[in-house]
Design goal:
Two copies of one chain form a homodimer. The first copy, chain A, is mainly alpha-helical. Chain A has a two-stranded antiparallel sheet. In chain A, α1 packs parallel to α8 and α3 packs parallel to α4. Chains A and B meet through α1, β2, α8 and α9 of A and α1, β2, α8 and α9 of B.
Amino acid sequence: MKHNLQDTISLLARTPASLNALLRDLPETWTFRNEGENTWSVFDVVGHLIHGERTDWMPRTKIVLEFGETHPFESFDRWGHVRESQGKSLGWLLDEFARLRSDNLGELRALNLRQEDLERRGLHPALGIVTLSELLATWAIHDLTHLHQISRVMAHQYRGDVGPWSQYLGVLQCTGHSSP
Amino acid sequence: MKHNLQDTISLLARTPASLNALLRDLPETWTFRNEGENTWSVFDVVGHLIHGERTDWMPRTKIVLEFGETHPFESFDRWGHVRESQGKSLGWLLDEFARLRSDNLGELRALNLRQEDLERRGLHPALGIVTLSELLATWAIHDLTHLHQISRVMAHQYRGDVGPWSQYLGVLQCTGHSSP
């Protein structure tokens, strides 16, 4: 089955409101603690999502459409959000993520991509040849990867509080699948 | 550090709105597909959360407060939602979950639990002695376990669409940690 861009956009459009409903004004127990050294808190994850909106998804889409395989994407800085987020509140980050996502989806819709556009190829600096379709599908699954991470980081804060139920709680068995 | 009941309630209160923002009117690609035989779709997971509101968390809280360790909890039926959800829409389930959660948190707050109440012990039919504090902490982490599952089930639907990026997407490496 072919990747359905409308399904992808439907999900991308909902992530900011879902995170806002979950995280805004939540006690810092849940949002400012991480899983240990060199891991991310929920605050860090939202900063990372913002950094992706600024430097990854739509900039790479434009590179594919303009240059195809002749011009590799810039490498994405996985710690690029740290400086950008300094001194900001989680509420500010949630607003900024929602604003950037909305702007980016406006741009994406305005491109009116057709099937032949989705098949266009670009050059990833580490992965090699990729298609625009794969890039846009990845944008959505990247949201889900970080929703998965957020649930795990939050659950970790209660590891000592659930007693013998820990064995039934799948999220507490998850040790993560990527770094960080 | 002691389990902080206000932090727990803060999270429990946000889950319905967060799921609503993520899932309402989302294309069925995301919400009605599962991960294979005997696994759950997002629709099933929301039904399971409803079943927990009806039969698990507050009923068990009342059993601890009334009977202590002398009266074991009823076993929770992990497939109890299937019949209850039949013929319902996902929108209906999201509304019902929000309504039940709100009612349950109203009841919980009205109990005005003190630290000595949280230390009261109950009898789980499989796990043995547990405390009310552990039960209420588990309620919150159970939400996160299913948010973790929802992100994974949704991501699975795009497994074939992300091309070489799959190796960078942690949620696609997750095979789940509990059954189902």
